[in-house]
Amino acid sequence: MEADMKRMNNKWKELERIAHDRVGWRMLVSGPCSFTRSNKCK
């Protein structure tokens, strides 16, 4: 059971890291304006 929990935890950490990478990449590509969809940028 303990090992199972640890493995699940690692999987979540990996998914979290991938998600962060993708969000950061999207911000980089499209720029902060389209990311936040705010009117300040116009």
Q: What count of helical segments does DSSP give?
A: 1
The secondary structure category is: mainly alpha
Mean pLDDT: 79
Low-confidence stretches: none
What does this protein look like?
The structure is a single chain. The protein is mainly α and 42 residues long. The model has no long low-confidence stretch (mean pLDDT 79). The longest helix has 35 residues.
In short:
This protein has 42 residues and is mainly α. Helix content is 83%, strand content 0%. This is Phage protein.
Helices, strands, pairings?
Layout: H1 2-36
Protein name: Phage protein
Organism: Schistosoma curassoni
Which descriptors apply to this entry?
42 residues; mainly alpha; 1 helix; Phage protein
